[in-house]
Amino acid sequence: MNHTPENWGRPRDDIYGFYDKSFLQNTGGAQQHTTRPVVTGTSVVALKYNGGVVMAADNLASYGSLARFTDIKRIKQVGDHTIVGAGGDISDMQYLFDKLLESVLIKEEYQNDGHALRAPHIYSYLARVLYNRRCKFNFLWNSILVAGYDDEKKPFLASADLLGTRFSSPALASGYGAQLAIPILRKIAPDEASVTKITKEQAIEAIKLCMKVLFYRDARSMNKYSLAVISEEGVDLTHGVALENESWKFAETVRGYGAQTV
Amino acid sequence: MAYLHTANIISDFPPSHHHHTSAGPFVQHQITPYTNNGGTILGITGEDFVVLAGDTRHSEGYSINSRTEKKVHRLGKESSLVLATVGFGADALDVVETMKRAVEDYKFHHNKEMSPPAAAQLLMTILYSNRFFPKYAYCILVGIHAGKGVLYSYDVVGSYSKSGERRAAAGAASDLIVPFLDNQVELKNQYVPYAWEEEIPVQPLPMEKVRRLVKDAFTSATERHIQVGDGLQIITVAASGVGWGVSEEMYELKKD
């Protein structure tokens, strides 16, 4: 009796010989899944304000520690009032953005029923795709933020990652942003009630500050980013925004590691 | 989420540096399809009602993802069924969605609401059908059956008691809450004062007392467990005549 369930119902090696894997292309003999991200994007940060959402992600795609591509758009507009920002593997992001979301939009457009997909619909679709792929042990190596308006026309912001984990909050950030940007953003948006007191200008300012802090501390970031502002008028998505008031003056006061001798 | 960069989703503690050395092309990175999103759920039955509660903190490692993610879900607008889940957030939500759809389907097919014992059996079937790739979701299912509050609790592969339970707790701080419930709901180690070893008899608790126990359990768990806090969602399902009423109360917990 063979007590290993995966061998049940399969030809026995001692009678039929070992399975001939030579026709398979890869040497492992089995289908290979992504085991790690290769070209990666770093944090995405976003904050709700009274009447909309602001989101930012830099334009860098890293290959390990090499800054490989410096003009990558990691925020995509989906329909009239929704944006999606992605961190993690860039090729998986491009598959989500250019293959999946594009075909979803075209399919929805062809219906011509006056119904438009809103942020929660896009979000639950993407979160389901990510969860489905993790269940097949074939991860889409991303962490995504979706922003826009819900069915009650209220600002919507939510997160999903490669495991299919879903959550929502007035301020969200992935990657290093979760460590460095969230404390800054939660100071002005500790809860949903405080969101009504934040103006569009304040939200943009806070997000810009986060991008600066992230550039100072995250070694896989750059000083050029995409900034998206969602308001009643629609989505204002600008790529290649330069970091403002960059100053490394603080660096000389940093002690404890690096090249200093004292 | 450092694993987006280094692929070490699984615990890298104590820190090892083998990911960064060039050990050849055949190094297999260990990845896991699970994570722990913390939080705790708690349910207590009374005579003709049942209370189901859960904190609203959603965390991963030392990060708080959200302070407002609800863990207790009604399974239908007209149904008395309420399901709470903790563990791995994505699996937990998937179990809830599967149950919601099944409860809706049942109504379309039979033109009546699914009974709590039927839902209980169904939940076991769903969880056990994933026996060899389990949904990492600890569940507590409650509802009103024949005018009484009923409660079922499950492990991740669907083990449950058909006859239901008086109370249950699951999740991060269940270790802290269960002994408290033993003492306050099952009245373990409680004796009649001045009577020689005469135990206080167990009897159904009134609704106000149950809600107070729930709040006390969670405020105490919040003090001692880092994954518990922020907010408390308390859903009460009470039998009334031939039907039932469902109400929700939100209660603040400490956010530190």
From TrEMBL, chain A:
Record localization: Cytoplasm; Nucleus
> GO terms for CC?
cytoplasm; nucleus; proteasome core complex, beta-subunit complex
Keywords on record: Cytoplasm, Nucleus, Proteasome
**Taxonomic superkingdom:** Eukaryota
Q: Which PROSITE patterns is this protein grouped with?
A: PROTEASOME_BETA_1, PROTEASOME_BETA_2
Q: Which Gene3D superfamilies match?
A: Glutamine Phosphoribosylpyrophosphate, subunit 1, domain 1 (3.60.20.10)
Do you know which InterPro entries this protein is assigned to? Ntn_hydrolases_N, Proteasome_beta4, Proteasome_bsu_CS, Proteasome_sua/b, Proteasome_suB-type
Q: Which family does it belong to?
A: Belongs to the peptidase T1B family.
Functionally, this protein is described as follows: Non-catalytic component of the proteasome.
**Can you say what this protein is called?**
Proteasome subunit beta
UniProtKB/TrEMBL annotation, chain B:
> A single GO CC term, please?
nucleus
This chain belongs to the protein called N-terminal nucleophile aminohydrolase
Q: Which domain of life is it from?
A: Eukaryota
Swiss-Prot/TrEMBL GO biological process terms: proteolysis involved in protein catabolic process
User: Which SUPFAM superfamilies does the UniProt record give?
Assistant: N-terminal nucleophile aminohydrolases (Ntn hydrolases) (SSF56235)
User: What keywords is this UniProt entry annotated with?
Assistant: Cytoplasm, Hydrolase, Nucleus, Proteasome
- Tell me the Pfam families matching this sequence: Proteasome (PF00227)
From the Swiss-Prot or TrEMBL record, what is one GO molecular function term? hydrolase activity
**Tagged with keyword Methyltransferase:** no
Record localization: Nucleus
Q: Per the annotation, which location comes first and is thus the protein's main one?
A: nucleus
- Name the PROSITE patterns on file: PROTEASOME_BETA_2
Sorted alphabetically, which InterPro entries does this protein's record hold?
Ntn_hydrolases_N, Proteasome_sua/b, Proteasome_suB-type
